[in-house]
Amino acid sequence: MAAVGPLARVARLSSSICRSRTLDLSRCPQRRGVASCVDPAHGLTEEQKEFQKVAFDFAANEMAPHMAEWDQKEIFPVETMRRAAQLGFGGIYVQPDVGGSGLSRLDTSVIFEALSTGCVSTTAYISIHNMCAWMIDTFGNKEQREKFCPDLCSMAKFASYCLTEPGSGSDAASLLTSAQQKGDHYILNGSKAFISGGGDTDVYVVMCRTGGKGPKGISCLVVEKGTPGLSFGKKEKKVSASCSLGAAHACVQLAKDHLLVRKQFGETLSNNQFLQFKLAEMATKLVASRLLVREAATALQENQPCAVSLCSMAKLFVTDECFNICNQALQMHGGYGYLKDYAVQQFVRDIRVHQILEGTNEVMRMIISRNLLTES
């Protein structure tokens, strides 16, 4: 009998997900009719459309109905994420020999965009978990890959990425956490901040200094929960993160639906030309953002010389424009947009940090301009 890999499981389980719960269309804008001009499936292969559909269905059935509760009660939805891992979403671009799905960066961006329409902050953590698993898969030795990756891909264990420190954020090369080798182990000293999943996760991928000053003196250690000396501070009250495209897609749908039903001065808002034009601008920026992300993902996968600049452009442009899209959608809702009964306000809160996270957009501008000015 042939082995069933993660991708095969995704295709096989897609129909069962659709039947798992009754779809609440009022909470799940991603599954209603989508205008062809903003259809996120445009340009994808049939295989990509299949796992995109699985991700959209999972977002609609397993994430969107709980998004507000997870936010209000600060819940880390372990069982929901493990169900996502059963579909191959725990190690999307990890190699199959250690349990991963072996997909491309473009495939990954398609999946994260779809999942984030259900819950941006949960998808943000899943994206970080995937990055940690990929780092161990790519840079770890055979023993490390076989020890950590299978449990991470199944999400039997969860991972966190530890880079930011109280005194070093965007200037990551100035980090002070140090590691000194003593025999067959390292002594790690320092503190980290803003760790997604910190305290709830099992594996910590820690960036630390083992050499001199600057980026060349930095190494990466994997630290397991329970290691002597590892401790956690208080849980911060913070706005959640990542996956701007999915949030913007959901907000365009929410804004469109609101304009079609909300009446002012005896007619629906959809008849107001100013709002029609605003919606058109939102849709245009959404599609432009999506195209840039997919172009950058392809460049990264193919290790193109322009990959760093394109990824920086995507991070800069998409996080700015998608926040503007969500913010405009809230504005279109008027006072209703500020009520927690309406999902649009949570999308706005969840994606504001994207302009700061993973290198501020000011740093992205530095990277892009440096590349332009140093090219011969």
From TrEMBL:
Pfam families: Acyl-CoA_dh_1, Acyl-CoA_dh_M, Acyl-CoA_dh_N. Keywords: FAD, Flavoprotein, Oxidoreductase, Transit peptide. GO terms for cellular component: mitochondrion. Residues 161-240 form the Acyl-CoA oxidase/dehydrogenase middle domain. Coiled coil: none annotated. It is an enzyme of class 1 (oxidoreductase). One of its GO terms (molecular function) is short-chain 2-methyl fatty acyl-CoA dehydrogenase activity. Its cofactor is FAD. InterPro entries: Acyl-CoA_DH_CS, Acyl-CoA_Oxase/DH_mid-dom, Acyl-CoA_Oxase/DH_mid-dom_sf, AcylCo_DH-like_C, AcylCo_DH/oxidase_C, AcylCoA_DH/ox_N, AcylCoA_DH/ox_N_sf, AcylCoA_DH/oxidase_NM_dom_sf. Residues 45-155 form the Acyl-CoA dehydrogenase/oxidase N-terminal domain. It catalyses: (2S)-2-methylbutanoyl-CoA + oxidized [electron-transfer flavoprotein] + H(+) = (2E)-2-methylbut-2-enoyl-CoA + reduced [electron-transfer flavoprotein]. The keyword GTP-binding does not apply. Belongs to the acyl-CoA dehydrogenase family. PANTHER family: ISOBUTYRYL-COA DEHYDROGENASE, ISOBUTYRYL-COA DEHYDROGENASE, MITOCHONDRIAL. This is short-chain 2-methylacyl-CoA dehydrogenase. It comes from Echeneis naucrates.
